[in-house]
Amino acid sequence: MADMDPFEQAQIQLARALKVQKISDALSARLRKPEREITVAIPVTMDDGTTRVFEGYRVQYSSLRGPYKGGIRYHPDADINEVRALAFWMTFKCAVAGIPMGGGKGGITVDPKTLSAGEIERLTRGFVQRLAPILGPYMDVPGPDVGTNAVVLGIIADEYSEIVGKPTPAVATGKPINEGGSEGRAAATGAGGMHTLMALLPHLTKKKPAQMTVAIQGFGNVGSFLARNLFSEGFKIIAVSDSKGGIHSEKGLNPDAVERYKKDNSTLKGFPGTKSITNEKLLELPCEIVVPAALENAITKHNAKKIRANIVLEMANGPTSTEADDILFKKGIAVVPDILANSGGVVVSTYEWEQNLKGEHWSEKDVLDKLRKLLNRESKNVWERSKKLKTDLRRAAFALALERLEKALGAKTAK
Ligand code: GLU
């Protein structure tokens, strides 16, 4: 896990952005601390009859632009400080995307792979029982993140609905389609990464997708959909990995075939025509685009010098430390920041919330078209801001978010 404190990293990113984007003292003071944090102990009766108590968290960072919004992470390394950093990034992500949401995040310190489906359900219901007073469609709307999926989000909405005594699907997003989920939500983060990349590509390189190779660290929901999207645009995927390690082929991989292989063998290792590669070495491969799509601090001062790609597309949250940012910048490597590149997930989560509130169900085409238009627009905005401020894409994305947060604060204090 992180070798640097993620919340400290997040605050350094903010401090750097404040050098290029002036904001009021009132906003800067508000953005230094979350509005509310909660830690809960969740007792769960395990399948063998014993009781285990798990620790869970929800950080509600900012409600300036709307209800708190952000995923729930189930991971053995999840802790309050990580969740706080992730909630901070959600605040900026929702502002960059221009969706009417604030920022929040939740987590439970648990390895979900070691729990049965029943144990995960009891854990999730227990978590919701303890958080219910601070959740709600107009208060705080959880979504999926590392280690959670549509089943978990469906349970969250169901338990909340039981507690308040009425069906309330808009309390959570990323649900199964037949429980109020949106078409396109599963594919959204990966699709969004592709749209962001395609919108910025002409500014970053003269090459066309068919001339470009890609290495992706992380072949979970985000990485696998991104791989499929990039593959269909003509990019050559030369390496992918999961938490156990990766595979590499100069000839290129077909993400659908890799996905099927992983399903059948529960590992990527041994995929025909590939060599194994570690997660560390994958990031250092000579290629055009490297994609950290797993966890924080994948690229740090220890390995940034060894990155040989021309573009880093951040699909994980907080994968690049601020020291690494400086090293990459000096090497002329463009970093497409997480708060823009991976915002497709929360954008379609917001479409799901909107559909639930209106009692509508939109087609997959409508959802994904809307997402593409939004990301084309906001990627262009971030690019133009970086030119105007003569700064990198991360500071530019933060600057745009800060301007929108300032407007929201202005509207509040004008009353
Ligand atoms: N976990 C995703 C993120 O980091 C999406 C959260 C959501 O859909 O609310 O942006």
From TrEMBL:
Key words of the record: NAD, Nucleotide-binding, Oxidoreductase
Binding, substrate: K69, K93, S349
InterPro entries attached to this UniProt entry: Aminoacid_DH-like_N_sf, Glu/Leu/Phe/Val/Trp_DH, Glu/Leu/Phe/Val/Trp_DH_C, Glu/Leu/Phe/Val/Trp_DH_dimer, Glu/Leu/Phe/Val_DH_AS, Glu_DH, NAD(P)-bd_dom_sf, NAD_bind_Glu_DH
Any GO BP annotation: L-glutamate catabolic process
UniProt keyword Nucleotide-binding, yes or no: yes
Binding residues for NAD(+): T189, N221
Highest taxon listed in the record's lineage: Bacteria
Residue span, Glutamate/phenylalanine/leucine/valine/L-tryptophan dehydrogenase C-terminal domain: 182-410
Catalytic residue positions: K105
Site feature location: Important for catalysis: D145
Family membership noted in the UniProt record: Belongs to the Glu/Leu/Phe/Val dehydrogenases family.
Coiled-coil segments: none
Protein's name according to its UniProt entry: Glutamate dehydrogenase
Record-annotated membrane-spanning stretches: none
Gene Ontology molecular function: any one: nucleotide binding
Species this protein is from: Candidatus Kaiserbacteria bacterium RIFCSPHIGHO2_02_FULL_55_20
